[in-house]
Amino acid sequence: MLVSNELYKKSSNTQKIRCEICANYCKISDGNFGVCKQHKNINGELFDESYGVVSSLSPDPIEKKPLHHFLPGTFTYSIGGFGCNMTCLHCQNYMISQDYDKFSRAIKITPEEVVENALKYNCRSIAWTYNEPTIHLPFSKKTSLLARQKNLKVIYVSNGYFSHRSLEEVLGFVDAFNIDLKAMSDDFYKKVCGADLGVVLDNLKRIYAEGKHLEVTNLIINGYNDSSDEISQLCDYVVEELGCDVPLHFSRAFPYYKMNDISPTNAETLYMAREIALDKGIENVHLGNI
Ligand code: SF4
Asked: Which domains does the chain have, with CATH numbers?
């Protein structure tokens, strides 16, 4: 599907284009894909090769997203595709985000069918989850607008690596976000995820300032982002730049993908993180994968 020309820029003298769907701002030459491998330059125009192609569909309890303070006790119809705009070495869903050629089968579905399924399973919302939804913006937008017409709420479970333009679009149709704040170190974001921490922090502030429902998740990895200093810094950011009312989830990491030499996160580290967050005044702190 041809991407709206508001989401990419053409070059005046070459066939190269600049995709502006996420903060990678990939410069893509003719015949090639961007980092997410879902968007292709064909003759100087940007095509979304992932439109209507999904990897996973399932009615899930909303608490699994995790969202504990938005429509609690309800089911959300969850949809995920393939690919990602980050390259996290520890990705817990790498079978659909990175190595999907080896592991996963594609399902074709229309926006109308997604909404019909959500209603059939008595879901109160649809959730874009499992892989990064931003890279599927054209499909998620069309489907979400249709879902809202049927009184379904819309959820984004995201790494927060939106471009300025795409976040503006997403804020127009998403009701609730869970954003993964992976660490408070630039170095971690660069080396482990291939991304820029500052972009995520700015986008979190913008989502909160818009008054959207926001919960934040931090996956704690032994030896990488598990120090009390870094956890304190993350909690300070939530308290000072967002608000004490933003629920914070600490989650346990397991050895996966290219980070299979770590041990599962120590339970004590999660309990310590919860204590720090509660001491800082964060009102709702949850532990996951434990
Ligand atoms: S969505 Fe992001 S990663 Fe994918 S091509 Fe566009 S800028 Fe690159």
From this structure: 5-48 (no CATH), 53-288 (3.20.20.70)
Residue among 3, 8, 24 to mutate when testing ligand 1 (max atoms within 8 A of CB): 24
Ligand 1 near 3 CB (within 6 A)? no
DSSP 8-state code for residue 119: H
Rounded Cα distance, 219 and 247, in Å: 14
Q: Which residue reads 């659909």 in tokens?
A: 96
Pairing outcome for strands 39-42 and 248-252: unpaired
| 228 pLDDT higher than 80 | yes
For 289, counting Cβ atoms within 10 Å of its Cβ (0-12 exposed, 13-18 middle, 19+ buried), the class is middle
DSSP state, residue 121 = T
Ligand 1 neighbour 39 (Cβ under 6 A): yes
pLDDT at 11: 80
State which of 35, 88, 132, 196 you would mutate to test the pocket of ligand 1, scoring each by most atoms of that ligand within 8 A of its C-beta: 35
Q: Which H or E run includes 157?
A: strand 153-158
Distance in Å, CA 63 to ligand 1 centroid: 29
For helices 137-149 and 164-171, angle between their N-to-C axes, nearest 10 degrees = 20
Residue 104 has pLDDT above 80, yes or no: no
Dist CA 273 CA 48 (whole Å): 40
pLDDT digits (tens, 9 = 90+) for 187-224: 999 999 999 999 999 999 999 999 999 999 999 999 99
Q: Which atom of ligand 1 is nearest to the CA of 34?
A: 5
Mean pLDDT of the 277-290 span:
97
Q: Which two tokens stand for residue 59?
A: 């009615």
